[in-house]
Write a structure and sequence with these properties.
Distance between the termini: 82 Å
CATH class of the largest domain: Alpha Beta
Helix content: 25-40%
CATH topology of the largest domain: BirA Bifunctional Protein, domain 2
Strand order of the largest sheet: 29-32-33-39-38-37-36
Largest sheet: 7 strands, mixed
CATH superfamily of the largest domain: Bira Bifunctional Protein, Domain 2
Structural class: alpha+beta
Oligomer: single chain
Strand content: 25-35%
Number of domains: 6
Radius of gyration: 39 Å
């Protein structure tokens, strides 16, 4: 919201000594974020109002050039006269117009000095200025033409106040619950409360008494749930060539809205002024009475942006007998828009249900200034005054006359009265708040405040423009806001003693710290996926990961599902990094996946008035998906970097498997690795990860088809583990360090090539007993003399005792035990 300070001061009696810095600080103090303060660069020297006395068209040049005689004021002309002559190329002014002239000696923004100079064969004794040259707007198509009837536009007077060269524009970020502040009226009221000065409500002025007068246009509301008030006034005989006054165009430009036409500018101006969006129809193009209804499926509407839109039954529209003529609260239709020939104008001021407008605007990606306000809720009581205000401006500057009567259908619900116990402000704020202070602050907000019969509470009726004030806590927040949040003590409550982090939290933090320590970068991705993600990963319809929880109102319509795997988000993050020039990428993420419960009950409807019953809480817990902690990682490019120490090495599927083992060691779990097949992994380079016999994840190289679909580098690898499936982390037992020397032995076993080396390692470790300190696979061999279909696995055994030096016989006994166990389990033979 861009708000010119000069416009705000028109409705709130701020003292002259209150400067921009104080106003900015006051807005921040009462809860409004001031994003920026825009002040035009200064113009020094004579910048005056001038009248065009004569225009001579110069010929013989490539572009139109005009030699203009100006009346600049007594004593300001050349040689003490009242006239100056200047060269100008603009065409948007005529003899008699009032313009802005910079006289010699003036310096415009950008250090542009004005002086008398010879050009086009004449002496140009100054310059006629455009808004862009004065940095008060971006309209560089022509020079500024002031309003002839503006009493401040006196020949020779300082033009700076007239063009906004001395004004400041505040840019604010308005929160969704404070839609009333998207208007000059709302901000002026806020500053009135902040400085405790009088406020003039521009929307509270008297409007016409139309009792007994015929309605200017019949209107029917078929959907009161979407629209509870619809006001129409009609202005006839409008001059279609009438232009918006300069003061209005200047304020619109300062607020970030470009000038279009008189009728449209007036609707935008009133919207900014009082917060009520308006729409102007060309009444001559309407086919009959207006109806507010839901669209029929397949109904067509060409909106003002020229886009032909196919409507559905959820869209709320304004229609006449010919069909939809406006997408309610969002954008008007092209068939009834104001044109260069419009003389009959119908002004609409309606109150729409915020959720209806919000859904339409987001579903169609069609956010407008009107929809921004309607989805934050608009004051339903201001609609008649806003329509009358717009009609009065249209009559004043466009001629014509206001038709008798006013259409006003619908009945908005009045605000409900809230009982505020006198002790509630102190209870919530932690500081004393008197009843008088509470009542005064709420009156400043616009509430009607009365004492209850018992005298222990205030009966507060919120104003129509504050639909967010629904309960005592909301009222207390307003009291605290206007009193100043800085008055609330900053003493932190003493934290109760606790047990510290849970074992699961410690495990998660340990895994994250370890992965970051070895060079992986942690990312945080959205927990939403879509059907296309499953297709890209080659996950077929029968896969259990396809059973997902669906969101009713997703942030992204293409991803309406809660994730059951972390790989889509990780691979998207990988693609984004690659697109930005990264080549060696290692990412990991720790987060939740969401697994729907089979036959989950429907969640109960709970209110905020009382604590839910134990039964409702159990049903609610049973209805939500199970949330499981996963860790995922993706690797591509070089895992060992190249340098002076030697060549690098690309990450491969073995690195993903070893990374899974490392996570297991960090989490205190002994993992078992076996061959597996699961999308999206390469069927020959995929490892299943187990804790005992319980599967907890997979690691390996992505399938080439998946890599091609996602545009990833060849041999990209990934892993995903279910950390919640790991056993509770056991206390770390320090290893026993023996001071006796080990006995080192090698053993080579021939097994079938389908036997995983990891399983052989596990069997050897169990069979070796307490004397077997370590088992390490150091070679895998196939070929002569190993029989076809078999492979040779060579292991290095370290045998050691903690209390004595072992003999050769002791070591041989351990070796015989592991060979016997391998033979029994896998049919292994010594090579």
């Amino acid at each position: 919201m861009r708000a010119p300070l000069e416009w705000i001061r028109q409705y709130v009696a701020l003292p002259d000594e209150v400067g921009v810095a104080e106003i900015e600080a006051a807005l921040i103090r009462i809860g409004h974020e001031v994003e920026d303060v825009h002040t035009p660069p200064p113009t020094t020297g004579d910048l005056v109002v001038a009248r065009v006395l004569a225009v001579e068209e110069l010929t013989g040049f490539k572009k139109p050039i005009r030699f203009v005689t100006l009346e600049v004021g007594a004593g300001l002309g050349a040689d003490g006269s009242a006239e100056r002559q200047v060269i100008c190329g603009a065409r948007n002014f005529a003899v008699g117009d009032l313009v802005v002239a910079a006289l010699p000696g003036a310096v415009l923004p950008g250090d542009f000095a004005i002086a008398s100079r010879s050009t086009y064969g004449r002496i140009s004794d100054g310059m006629i200025c455009s808004a862009a040259e004065l940095r008060v707007g971006n309209d560089s198509d022509g020079i500024i033409v002031l309003d002839a009837d503006d009493p401040a536009a006196v020949i020779g007077a300082d033009a700076r106040p007239l063009v906004g060269a001395t004004d400041t524009v505040l840019e604010l970020a308005i929160t969704p619950d404070r839609g009333y502040a998207l208007s000059i009226r709302g901000l002026a009221r806020e500053l009135s409360a902040a400085f405790e000065v009088p406020f003039t409500d521009v929307a509270g002025t008297d409007i016409r008494d139309v009792a007994g007068a015929p309605v200017p246009w019949p209107v029917t509301i078929d959907d009161p749930a979407g629209c509870d008030r619809f006001v129409v006034v009609k202005v006839s005989g409008v001059d279609p060539s009438a232009r918006s006054p300069y003061w209005m165009r200047r304020r619109l430009l300062a607020a970030g809205i470009r000038s279009i036409s008189l009728a449209v500018d007036i609707t935008n101006y009133v919207m900014l002024e009082v917060g009520q969006p308006l729409h102007a129809f060309d009444a001559a193009t309407l086919a009959g009475p207006i109806t507010v209804r839901r669209a029929t499926p397949g109904e067509k509407l060409v909106t003002l942006d020229g886009v032909a839109r196919t409507l559905d039954a959820t869209d709320l529209v304004v229609a006449d007998p010919s069909g939809a003529i406006s997408l309610a609260g969002v954008m008007g239709g092209a068939s009834t828009e104001i044109s260069e020939t419009t003389t009959e104008v119908l002004i609409e001021a309606a109150h729409w249900t915020p959720s209806v407008i919000s859904r339409t605007a987001r579903r169609r990606s069609l956010t407008s200034e009107a929809s921004r306000r309607f989805e934050r809720d608009v004051d339903p009581a201001v609609a008649p005054g806003a329509a009358e205000r717009a009609a009065e401006l249209l009559v004043r500057y466009g001629g014509g006359h206001l038709e008798p009567g006013r259409t006003d259908v619908g009945a908005p619900n009045p605000p409900a009265t809230v009982a505020l116990p006198l002790t509630e402000p102190e209870r919530l704020l932690g500081r004393p708040v008197s009843a008088e202070t509470a009542a005064r602050r709420l009156v400043q907000v616009g509430c009607l405040v009365e004492a209850s019969e018992s005298g222990d509470a205030l009966l507060v009726t919120p104003p129509t423009w504050r639909p967010d004030l629904l309960r005592p806590a909301d009222l207390v927040e307003e009291i605290a806001r206007l009193d100043g949040f800085d008055l609330i003590g900053s003493v932190l409550p003493q934290a109760p003693a606790g047990a510290g982090l849970s074992s699961a939290q410690r495990r998660t933090r340990a895994v994250a710290a370890d992965l970051a320590a070895i060079g992986l970068t942690e990312v945080l991705t959205f927990p939403f996926i879509g059907p296309r993600d499953f297709v890209a990963l080659g996950i077929d319809e029968s896969d259990i990961r396809r059973r997902t929880a669906t969101l009713l109102n997703p942030l992204d319509s293409a991803r309406p599902l809660m994730r059951t795997t972390m790989l889509p988000g990780l691979l998207e993050a990988l693609s984004r990094n690659l697109a930005r020039g990264a080549r060696d990428v290692a990412l990991f993420e720790l987060g939740l996946v969401f697994l729907p419960r089979p036959d989950a009950p429907r969640p109960p409807v709970m209110t905020v008035g009382a604590r839910p019953s134990d039964h409702d809480l159990r049903v609610l817990e049973a209805s939500v998906p199970t949330q499981v902690q996963h860790v995922g990682a993706v690797l591509t490019g070089q895992w060992d970097r190249a340098g002076w120490w030697g060549p690098g090495r690309a990450a491969d599927w073995a690195d993903a498997v070893e990374l899974a083992r490392r996570i297991g060691r960090t989490a205190g779990a002994e993992l078992r690795v076996e061959t597996a097949e699961l999308a999206p992994f390469h069927p020959g380079r995929c490892a299943g990860i187990r804790v005992g016999d319980w599967p907890v994840g997979y690691a390996g190289e992505l399938h080439p088809a998946v890599i091609e679909r996602l545009g990833l580098p060849a041999r990209t690898v990934a892993l995903e583990l279910n950390l919640s499936g790991f056993p509770e982390r056991r206390p770390v037992v320090p290893p026993v360090v023996s001071s006796f020397p080990p006995v080192l032995q090698d053993v080579a076993l021939v097994v079938a090539d389908t036997v995983p080396a990891g399983r052989v390692t596990e069997v050897l470790r169990r069979a070796g007993g307490p004397l077997l300190e370590s088992v390490r696979l150091f070679d895998v061999y196939t070929g002569d003399p190993v029989p076809a279909g078999h492979k040779s696995l060579a292991f290095a055994l370290s045998v050691r005792a903690a209390d004595r030096t072992l003999t050769g016989a002791d070591a041989q006994q351990v070796r015989d035990a592991v060979v016997e166990a391998a033979a029994r389990e896998f049919g292994a033979v010594l090579r």
